[in-house]
Each structure stands twice: as structure tokens, then as C-alpha cells.
Amino acid sequence: MQFADANFQRDGFAFIPNLLTHEYQNKLKSLVPEILKNAAQLEQKGEYLMFLQDDIPVLDKLFRAKSLLAKIKSATGLTGEIIKPLSIRIWNRCPGDCGTSWHQDARFTPSDSLAAFSLWVPLQDINSLNGPLMFIPGSHRQCLLKQPQLSNCSPTGVEGKNTIVASPMKYGDATVHDSWIVHGSAGNCSNTPRKALIINWLFRPLELNKVPVLYGHLHPKEVNYVRAHNAKTLQKRIQITGIGLSPTEWLEAIKA
Q1: Cβ contacts of residue 214 below 8 Å, gap of 6+?
Q2: Going residue by residue through the chain (256 aa), what tens digit of pLDDT does each one get?
């Protein structure tokens, strides 16, 4: 299977060519300095989740544009559904940085009923050298018990290890992936930084587990540490009036 042929429902990820028009590309490019500034401040506070849409309303408005939402819903098969942005953050991979380990996003969110997906938007062209994403097709129907795992070799504990590299991509292209897809990224072997926005979306209300940690020797301390931290952050988030991520506010939005 080729990268461009991926199907979200079948494979757990999909390619969205030309998600951003030239107008939106220019708008997003103009926001990058502010995005980096706000992200650096949040990283200093030790935040895993970032809500850059709060600090940069123009960024929030850009990704709520009807034309973008239509393309995202079409790629995910969620046409007709309500989708809401949960978080927006940036990953900045400097030259020489190693890749992101194999993992599943949902494993770090303490919710058994999580209905979410991620939109990955590179802020420059992506090639085989500057840290492209890598996916294991169909792995969203499995659980990678041992994670994270280094991405310089195939992950252990999942069936089907046919790795699909999300490259090449132009600035303006994007990928979407299921919250359970096993994915990682290659290292940045280029001589320039590789920046990408990650927008996490919900298509059902966010309901958190009462106990965030996973018990048993198969669940690493690293995973439970992040789950516990995210539980506190997300619990505060869904209690903010007007955010609209809690079950009550979500139902009110549907009625409206």
C-alpha cells in the first residue's frame, strides 16, 4: 500500500492533500513566531497538552473554517458529525533530533470512551530526511502494550508491521490518524528544523476515568505518569464554561 492510498476507517490514518489553500498557508506561516513563543512558555511549565487555540484566537478560527472542516470530515468519514478541537500544540524537531517513539495517542488519555483523532499539519515540506511520520496500517484495532518503543526498528507486540512513511508531503498537506493507530516518526537528518502542528479533535464528549492509571506490569510508569498529568489538565479543561467538551455542553451544542 502506498501512503496516498491510505483509508482512515480501514488503515487508521489518511492523507489530505492540499488541506490548506495558499491563503491559509500564508496566514498560518505568519502565526508561527507567536506559536513558537507560546509553546516555549508552556513547555517551561512542563505541560504535555497545549491549548494554543486559547492564546491565539486567529489560529483557532483558521482551523474551524468550514472549508477545512469539510475536508477533514470527508477524510475521516465523519461527515455530518460534530467535531471539536481539544488541543493544539507544536512539535519542533531540530536537526539531529531522534524520532518519536512508537506509541498510541489514546494510551496517554485516561478515558475508556475516547472518540478522537489527530490532524498533523507540517509547517514546511516533508521528505524522507526531515522526520516524517510513520504508521502501522490497521494497528488502531490493537493495543501496543509495550510503549513507547524506539522508532528505529519495527515495534514488537502488534500484528502487521508494514510501515508506511508519510512522505513526501508539501506545505499545505496534512494527515489524519485515529487515536489508537500505532505511529511514530523518523529522526530529523536534515540541516533545518522540522515543525508541525498537531490538532487533536473530539467527535464525542470527553469523559475521563475516575482512576487515570493502568494497573499491571505491562503498563510502564512513563505511560501512567503522563496519564495522571493529563487527567488533571483535562479535568480542569472540561469544567471551563463555554469550552463545550463536557457531555452536558456537547448535548446543548447538538440541540442548537
Answers
A1: 223, 224, 227
A2: 899 999 999 999 999 999 999 999 999 999 999 999 999 999 988 888 999 999 999 999 999 999 999 999 999 999 989 999 999 999 999 999 988 999 999 999 999 999 999 999 999 999 999 999 999 999 999 988 888 888 888 898 888 778 999 999 999 999 999 999 999 999 999 999 999 999 999 999 999 999 999 988 778 888 999 999 999 999 999 999 889 898 888 877 665 5
Q: Which residues, at least 6 apart from 153, have a Cβ–Cβ distance to it below 8 Å? A: none
Helices (H), the chain: 8-11, 22-44, 52-55, 57-63, 66-76, 221-238, 247-255
Cβ–Cβ under 8 Å, residues 218 and 124: no
Unique residue bearing C-alpha cell 468519514: 77
Are 126 and 194 within 8 A, CB to CB? yes
Using CB atoms within 10 Å of the CB of residue 69, give its burial: 0 to 12 exposed, 13 to 18 middle, 19+ buried.
middle
Residue 195, CB-side half-sphere exposure with 13 Å CA sphere: 16
For residue 100, what is the DSSP state?
P
Q: Is 135 helix (H, G, I), strand (E, B) or coil?
A: strand
